[in-house]
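Students often ask what a holo structure prediction actually looks like on paper. The answer is less mysterious than it sounds. You provide the chain, you provide the ligand, and the output is a string of discrete structure tokens encoding the 3D arrangement of the protein together with arginine.
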Amino acid sequence: MKFKITLITMLSLLLVLAMGSMALAETYVVGTSAGFPPFEYVENGQIVGFDVDLIKAIGETQGFDVEVKDMSFDSLIAGVKTGNLDIIAAGMTITDQREKAVDFSEPYYSADQSIIVKEGSDNDLTVLFGDHDIGVQTGTTGDIWVTDNLSKKGILKGRVVHYEVFVMAVNDLMNENLDAVVLDSPVAARYAELKPVTVVGKVVTGEQYGLAVNEGNTELLNKINAGLKEVIDSGKMNELLAKYFQ
Ligand code: ARG
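The corresponding structure tokens follow.
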């Protein structure tokens, strides 16, 4: 009898412990789109970068773990809508259009659009006019800007070439299959350090990046915002900025 009680007590204790650790270590699936250095890129087969560290740091303050999934940028929103993803951490610009589908955290980074060309080429800012081929990443604010302001207005007479990942666009730029690529200014600056490409101009779009969750997932959004605040207040944010932007 005594043994039985002890066993039952131990088993229930184990159960409580197991439940406790489960509740502590809730894992959220985070969608990103690598090839966007220094925010997300592949290094030794791992997806790393500022956004990855940021969401991990936020998770640490709020007691959740993350599992990062890499996919094409234009399938991220569908990912949270269908429940395959809990969070988007992809240098995603907060826009009215996207606000209709997802809820964004407080902004965590500002950016504009930049134009890059192959190093040593004669192209300058005027590459955006006339018969030139411009590469963009599908569904990005750069894509929308080039399509709406240049292509549809007939200012750009060449092609707008769509890529799933910027790495491929930058490769095509170096191979002279493209005349220019339009992408977020911090990422353009990083590519200019990593590859033989040059930034020839900037379009001031005044974008702000936010982390995103499904519309109405207030519980998770509150955790993210609380965590973001803690990451900023504790100095961890400055540490991450120094790690990735210097
Ligand atoms: N900020 C831009 C946008 O929201 C580009 C983001 C691209 N992000 C990425 N991880 N490839 O459209």
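The mean pLDDT is 93.
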